[in-house]
Design brief:
CATH topology: Glutamine Phosphoribosylpyrophosphate, subunit 1, domain 1
Number of strands: 14
Number of helices: 5
CATH architecture: 4-Layer Sandwich
Structural class: alpha+beta
Number of domains: 1
CATH superfamily: Aminohydrolase, N-terminal nucleophile (Ntn) domain
CATH class: Alpha Beta
Strand order of the largest sheet: 12-1-2-13-14
Shape: globular
Largest sheet: 5 strands, antiparallel
Helix content: 25-40%
Order of helices and strands: EEEEEEHEEHEEEEHHEEH
Length: 243
């Protein structure tokens, strides 16, 4: 399993993914789930993946080769806006399902994949999409400025409580790391290292692309500081007088 989270705020986008892949308790590997497309000054996009690794890698390879859509073979460097980019990822997912879905079903395996696509293309605003295994998708909005795939339940509460569209990118990075650390602590199928990408509004480049390991000083300060803050907050809560 995996956990990927994307934030869409006024200043831009924050995208974070883990790298753990497991096919059983004794078969754990590290694979990046974050793929970037950058043409400085024109576009900056990142695609995060969850689900069957063979399926998601095939989708990414197909996107690099080109996917037929609207009578042309297109890549993410060719589409004219982020909505078309999400459509292209959906088309790639459906094409891989057409090719491999029946064979997977014969082996008793589901066509299991999901994607978070975030970025900005010149002439448009930064946008964040969640693409499902059917190739359809939804978009982050002001009411729901974050999207998650994979093991999302442990990292969702902090985002629900704190995140707003006015959250800064700096605060957003801290929030995504807290969300990820909460997931890592509660689920063995999610783990370090992490891949972080930040796309600043109208920067049209990847402002930050960082691999975060156990030795990363900032991540350790977030992990330890959040744990201590939770303990202190718990100790300050009133105790029930009816027990």
């Amino acid at each position: 399993m995996t956990y990927c989270v994307g934030l869409s705020v006024e200043e831009g986008l924050v995208l974070l993914s883990d790298t753990r892949t497991n096919a059983g308790l004794d078969n754990i590997s590290t694979f990046s789930k974050m793929h970037a497309v950058e043409v400085p000054g024109e576009r900056a996009l990142a695609l995060m993946t969850a689900g069957n690794l063979a399926v998601t890698q095939t989708v990414w390879n197909l996107l690099q080769q080109g996917v037929w859509m609207e009578g042309a073979q297109l890549r993410l460097t060719d589409v004219h806006d982020m909505f078309a980019a999400a459509q292209l990822v959906g088309a790639a997912v459906r094409e891989v399902n057409r090719r491999d879905g029946a064979a997977l079903a014969q082996q008793g395996l589901a066509f299991d994949c999901s994607f978070l696509l975030g970025g900005q293309i010149a002439g448009g605003a930064p946008r964040l999409f969640l693409i499902y295994s059917a190739g359809n998708f939804i978009e982050a909005t002001e009411d729901t400025p974050f999207l998650q795939i994979g093991e999302h339940k442990y990292g969702k509460p902090i985002l629900d409580r704190v995140l707003t569209p006015r959250t800064s990118l700096v605060e957003g990075v801290a929030l995504t790391l807290i969300s990820m650390d909460s997931t890592i602590r509660s689920n063995l199928s999610v783990g370090l290292p992490l891949d972080l990408t930040v796309i600043r509004r109208d920067g049209l480049r990847l402002a930050v692309r960082r691999r975060i390991t156990e030795e990363d000083g900032y991540y350790r300060s977030i992990r330890d500081g959040w744990s201590e803050a939770l303990r202190e907050a718990y100790m300050r809560l009133p105790r029930p007088d009816f027990v």
